[in-house]
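Worked example 2:
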Amino acid sequence: MTEVDKNAEIIWDYMLMHQELKPVDAILVFGSHDTRSAEKGAELFLEGLAPYIVFSGGFGSRSSNDHFSKPEAEIFAEVAIGKGVPADKILKETKAENSEHNVVFTKKLLEEKGLPSDTFIVVQKPYMERRTYATFKNFWPEPEIIMASPQISFEDYPADLEHKERLIHMLVGDLQRIKEYPAKGFQIPQVIPDGVWQAYEKLVALGYTEHLIKE
């Protein structure tokens, strides 16, 4: 493993929250360009962990770039139905363009339908577990949430070398956001261990800066 990979894997491991799953009121899957999250949400539903599943996502920057022809929630729902989830157990929120929207728009949808929403399993890409947790608790602090993601290692997640380079840029940018976004009112604070931040600084020095916040 290269030095770049070692530092990227340190950040990857920090992003995973390793929370124990249990039955909840609902499974909420954040949309993205990666339909493996939809597969994971379907798997958890079929294990009987919730009575229904919510897919939230419109057209994000990555899904637009990857030429999704429908909102992320629509595509994710199709994946779940293909895995055996009944269509009448699926709710779709199709307007969200970012993580704040995923939370706020889903909250509004469930309130309108009068559905219980005290406990959630929230499914996201592996490297976005912690950032998603911090965003959810910032904009909707009351529910208990358990983070989950496809069980894929850092080495196995990217499809090829180009995707790995993009992934490392994303990891670096997301860690910066975990540090900076609480002051902007976007996330609750998270403790970042020294070793994780040192890995970030090494990768920034090596040029992994494409996903950094533009001041």
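The chain has a mean pLDDT of 94. The beta strands are 26-30, 53-56, 90-93, 119-123, 144-148.
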